[in-house]
Structure formats: structure tokens, C-alpha cells
Amino acid sequence: MTVSLTRYERVRGSLLTPHGKGPFPAVLLLHDHGAKFDIGKEKLIRPWADDTRLASAEAWAERYFSGRFPGDELARRGYAVLCLDALGWGDRGPVTYEEQQALAGNFYNLGSSLAGLMAREDARAAGFLAGLDRVDSRRVAAVGFSMGAYRAWQTAALSDDVAAAASVCWMTGLKEMMVPGNNTLRGQSAYYMLHPGLARHLDIPDVASIAAPRPMLFLDGEQDTLFTAEGVRTAYAKLRAVWDSRRAGHRLRTELWPGAGHVFTEPMQDEVFAWLDAVL
User: Domain extents for the chain?
Assistant: First the structure.
């Protein structure tokens, strides 16, 4: 399928729907970065057997998702699932690791940003999904891992079409992230998540908190080297303060997964899926 997210480009994506008439609860599934650009939506939804990207997708699923494709599992559980390529991945790429910086530089020269485009497209994708006849517009969630987790809470903050969001392995405080050697400061991949000037006004959890008091799940690996447990706990405390101020503390769930690194394993997936069942 193709979706016109902006007036400049039609984006190819995968849409899975369960058997039956619906309307179904739905998930906007947002893929990670991973410095791997030959696959985007295929990281989360298994390609067809004759797709040349199948082997690459299966290797990615084995590395991060216990060999399971989260989108396929969600569809089996009764959810409509939409996953689109972000600019630079899959059918909209592939770019090289070095080309990201040039792409971001061109956006800045045009008075825009790569992060801004991705945020706008994800919000439009949520609106498209919520508008489908087979989807219950009141029960649309955004779900993602790694950069996809960032995209999930960001989309919830930007779009009223998102009723809930689950973010796996992307939450921290700005101060705790801005340390030498942190992967998110290396340029290249950072530009997809760097809004010029925003940090003068809002910390990372402040932006996510715009989505309050809607149900939100933040699940991070205790041993994740990209986001230290200290930074995650600091962010969780700020999130909790906002939800509590809205008398909605019961709608926020924050969890550090013991022993886990930067992964979205099958037990972690089952935890997220059970949470989605409960809130949607």
C-alpha cells in the first residue's frame, strides 16, 4: 500500500488486518534506526517469502526481537497494524550512515529539519490509520523500539489520534544523555531526533509528557548502554510528576527490565501486548 503523508511524497508501507469485520484496535508500529537502512518496515513485519530483504529482516528479528516479528504477532492478537518506512530506510533509501548528515544539512539549509519531517510524517500516519473504516479510531496506539520508541512517545505528544503509546528503550534525561561518548551525540543518527532549539525550553520527558493523561508505557533495559539506568530513572520521575498532577498516575507505567540491554525480547513484547490489551 502507499500513503501520501505529505504533498511531496507517497510512502510505501505494510498494513495488516485481522480476519473479521472490525472495527479493530490498531497499532502504528514505528521502526528503529540501528544504522541499518536496507530494511525499515521489514524490521517489524515479515516480508513476503520472495522478497530479497527477507534474510536481512529475519537476521534483525533474531538479533533484537527473539526471532519474532512484532507486527505479525500483534495482527495475530487482533490488532490492525500499520508500519511505514521513514525517510532513508527500505523503499525510501537506503542511505549510507554518512549520508544522514548531508541529508540533515540540506533540511537545515531549507529552514526545516530531518527530525521535524519524521515527526510530521508519523503524526500524519497516525491520522491515516485512525481514519480507516476497519479501525476503531478511539483505540489507536503507537508502539516502537529504540528510535521507534522515541517516535512513539513523540507521536502521542503531537497527535490526538493516538490513544496510548508504548516506548521500548528510548527515554532519558537530557543532562544524563549529554555526556562524552554517548551514541546519540555522534551526529548522523542523532539528526532524526534533534529538533533545533527545543532543548532550551523542554527536557526529553517534558516533550513526552505532553501526551498526559493518556495511557503510556515506558519500558527500558536495565543494562542498556545507550541509556543509563540513572538517566532513565530521572526521566521516569519527571514523567510521573506530570501524570500524577493530572490525577492519572494509574495510566502511566514505567519499568526497567532486569538484565536487559538494548533489545525488545519476546517476554518484553508479551508484557507490552498485555498492556495494550488492558488499555485499549
Answer: 2-279
Q: How far is CA 179 from the centre of its chain?
A: 24
Q: 3-state SS of the chain: helix, strand, coil percent to 5?
A: 45, 20, 40
> Could you tell me which residues are beta bridge partners of residue 111?
none
Distance CA(99)–CA(89), nearest Å, equals 12
**Closest Cα partner for 136 from 97, 199, 80?**
80
Sign of CA dihedral 143, 145, 151, 154: positive
Collapsed DSSP state (helix, strand, coil) of residue 194: coil
How many angstroms separate the CA atoms of 134 and 21, rounded?
7
First to last CA, the chain: 26
**Domain 2-279 -> CATH class:** alpha beta
Secondary structure (DSSP) of 226-237: SS-HHHHHHHHH
Q: How far apart are CA 231 and CA 222, in angstroms?
A: 11
Q: Shortest CA distance to 77 belongs to which of 119, 19, 21, 28? A: 19
Neighbours of 202 (CB within 10 A): 15
Chain segment 52-82, per-residue pLDDT in tens: 999 999 999 999 999 999 999 999 999 999 9
Question: Is the alpha carbon torsion for 214, 220, 226, 230 positive or negative?
Answer: positive
- pTM (global) more than 0.70: yes
**CA-CA distance, 160 to 23, in Å (whole number)?**
19
CB 243 within 8 A of CB 213: yes
